[in-house]
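Field notebook, page 471. I keep forgetting to write these up properly, so this time I am using the form the group agreed on. The chain and the ligand, zinc ion, are recorded exactly as supplied. Prediction of the bound pose follows.
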Amino acid sequence: MSEALLHALKTAVGDAHVLTGGDLGAWEQDWRKRPPGKALAVVRPGSTQEVAAVVRACAAAGTSIVPQGGNTGLVGGSTPDASGTQLVLSLARMNKVRDIDAANLTMAVDAGCVLQALQHAAEDAGLLLPLSLAAEGSCTIGGNLATNAGGTQVLRYGNARELCLGLEVVTARGEVWNGLSGLRKDNTGYDLRDLFIGSEGTLGVITGATLKLHPLPVARLTAWAAVPSMDDAVALLELARRHGGPGLTGFEVMGRFALQLVAHHFAQLRVPFLDSAPYGVLLEISDHESEAHARAQFERMLETALEDGCTVDAVVAETMSQAQHLWHIREAIPLAQAEEGLNIKHDIAVPVSRIPAFCAETDTLLRTAIPGVRLVNFGHLGDGNLHYNVQAPEQADARAFLAAHEEQVNTLVYDQVASHGGSISAEHGVGSVKIDKLPRYKSPVALELMRTLKRALDPENILNPGRVVRI
Ligand code: FAD
Ligand code: ZN
């Protein structure tokens, strides 16, 4: 790094927060433990003004910046490439709740706040921040917004985008745009906020956000149902929507092999009904009246499901700790998969009505193409979003399997997604992993509009180059 840039960075954030030597592994490798990149430096600003100063210094030096929150992204977006020329801008020190406005049902926060800390802060104020995902103990709200994260309550409350009313952003020139409005209505031109949400750090650095809160439900009940087929899971979803209405806040489907992995690697998590049906479904009802009301609703719904045959067994958690236990099983699936070995991940979406056909066809195609392949299928059925992952055959070497089959598997799965009118990324984003896959599945018009935006907002291409779209 040039002396001038080093000096400017140290002046901006203080010597202690410009890391150039020692072990930078924590910032250079992401959650999936792909081969690490190499950072020019890791810079840890403590305020919006410091972020702006860092971006200005990098812009002057022509140095590219990789914004990083909790580094839980799964698509190679938050870590530097191997060139040793990209600077990691960590938002982790910006972790203050700025303001909670209970009457307006909003919360203004720094981008580096960990999601779980924000859930607790909202709850302490008697309110609900409904964004919830398995990485919530590490991921940051800035990362959630930059990736438009989803999670387990999207079917009721929407993605991160729906939960954000305003943003504060540092532009590629190092200017600060204060768009931290708590307004629910504002039609004064283009929606700049929506440009930055889901842009994966390629259009600006998010430094703050105003989030939408909701009244805290009086009761939350969780149930587990054993389901004979994906068709039945969709039938159960329809039934749950009819009975639960807006009270239905969770609907997660889990294939048997995914659950077997949890049972195998985390034996303390006893998985219900593992032998009774090929799918488990986790349902959650939130109620603003009473627990008794929610329980009665659940019992009626599940009775009907058992009569209809779309469920063969079901249980409603009796206590909070039983409910947590059921959610732990769901959240342990990605961890159990990692324990089992390297695997090929997909976070795809197709219309809910197409999910059974998509799974039946794609399962068959994969099993024919690669005998013995193991399918780890689970996800947010209520949103038509599945984590349709592929694990090596039982005795195979996982690394060799990936080297031989990753491209083939991706193309097969994504072509299937496209033929069912779906998206090749419903949650994790494009990052560097899918950047060269996008042109096959996105229209040339859409891609050119994306390039137009990138060129306009980041003409020197210093913000997360090599992610989302190439210019
Ligand atoms: P990072 O990983 O640090 O960054 C992600 C991207 O955002 C990168 O491109 C980065 O450059 C950019 N970025 C980060 N912070 C900023 C900022 N302040 N300004 C501009 N750009 C920024 N995702 C889901 O959507 N739903 C799930 O259910 C889900 N479950 C997960 C479960 C596990 C176990 C794990 C490990 C991940 C899961 N994810 C899920 C993916 C991941 O948690 C989300 O993408 C999350 O939103 C990333 O947040 P982060 O702070 O870790 O961001
Ligand atoms: Zn998910």
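OBSERVATIONS:
- The chain has a mean pLDDT of 96.
- The pocket of flavin-adenine dinucleotide (ligand 1) is lined by residues 31, 66-74, 77-78, 91, 111, 133-135, 139-140, 142-144, 146-147, 149-151, 200-201, 205-206, 334, 427-428, 431, 464, 467 (CB under 6 Å).
FOLLOW-UP: compare against the apo run.
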